[in-house]
Amino acid sequence: MLRCPRSPLRLRLCLCVLLLLLLLLPGAPGHRGDAEPGPGAEKTGSRWAWPAFQGLQERLRAAGALSRRYWALFSCRVWPEHCEEDEEAPAGPLAWGRALLGQQYLDILTTWYCSFQDCCDSGDCRISNNFTGLKSDLSVRLHGQHLAQELVLRTVRGYLELPRPEKALVLSFHGWSGTGKNFVARMLAENLYRDGLRSDCVKVFIAMFHFPHPTSVDLYKEQLTGQIRKTQERCHQTLFIFDEAEKLHPGLLEALRPHLGRQAPENHRAQSPRSIFLFLSNLGGSVINEVVLRLLKAGRPREDVALGDLQPRLRAAVGEAPDSGFGHSCLVKENLIDFFVPFLPLEYRHVRLCARDAFLSQKLLYTEELLDEIAKMMVHLVLDRWKDTHTLPTSWTSWTADAAFGHFQNCNPSAGAKKKREGPVRASFPS
Length: 431
What we know:
By secondary structure, the chain is an alpha/beta fold. Among the domains are: 7-29 and 59-86 and 94-119, no CATH class; 131-263 and 271-344, Rossmann fold (3-Layer(aba) Sandwich). The chain is built from 16 helices and 5 strands. It has helices at residues 8-24, 49-78, 100-114, 131-140, 146-160, 181-192, 207-210, 217-234, 250-255, 257-260, 285-297, 307-319, 330-333, 348-361, 368-377, 402-407, and strands at 169-174, 202-206, 237-243, 274-281, 339-342. The radius of gyration is 30 Å and the shape is elongated. The model is unreliable at 26-36, 85-101 and 392-431 (pLDDT under 50).
């Protein structure tokens, strides 16, 4: 079996040689078989050399033109994102109308190339856009968040199916820690990209981890914008996640403005770039909880809580937050955020389902009593304990059961405990 080096230059030379070999096979387009002897062919001498040479030149020119056409079609099959539409070559003595045999050769060559290189219908194997899987994960693995389930799936799918989006999709997730914001962000990465959060097309930034020092904001701005630009150059579909968004410096939020607003159309590009920005924040969490609890006390089922019940107060709470620059940034003031996504407080039954999913994911045995014990340890998550009172907790603490969290990575493992960090914060920037 023919094997070629993976060096780009040598690989291209190898492909060209293979194309020429295919052209020389009997029955290939332009191949006329053995030359038929013409009149007087039995005579030999120098006077027959020049016509023979001219015939050879004609065949070489035809083979070269045909090889270029083969190469153009082959490259469009394997690298569609770099394919440029070209006009059909004019017909000639050996014109090729993409006959069935030529298509068979093209299929053979494509199959051979894809046997040792990644080939995908989308043209970029890093991008999967598995909307069926995303819908399943949101409905099966995410508990108690019917608003986020519907809104995230609808907006992300609708955006990625646009032929030429005019701006990035910007979503802002709001709610108390442990309600599923990081979990949904991870679901998006896992279903939109082959390598999930490890993909070259996905970048995660944590405010107090990557940008801990206000005095270094100018350096952070340069690093952040450079990272976004490089990622967008590598991938035509990118995902950027900003955790603890309420703690981002106003200067960093301002630096994001050019990437979030409307972009001038780039007609020369075969594929329009797409970017999704997720901002995860605890801002507005208390307002969400108050609204939901009031509706539940009024007798409305949890599943009947609508987006319209929360959006006005959530937007107002985010914009009026006194200790955060996020609400006063250009993102909110200039309406660069497309949707504010509320995450509702969990009830006892939801916490039990999260614990059950954690056991199932680790293939561990569990009992109903153990699920109850875990749910009782997560008392700060459970909305049920507030139903008989008229007040809500005024402050937020991390998981009350650190030991339980270590063993039971619940259905929102990455958001698990926003524990107080010990020691200095390392200012490492993602590559």
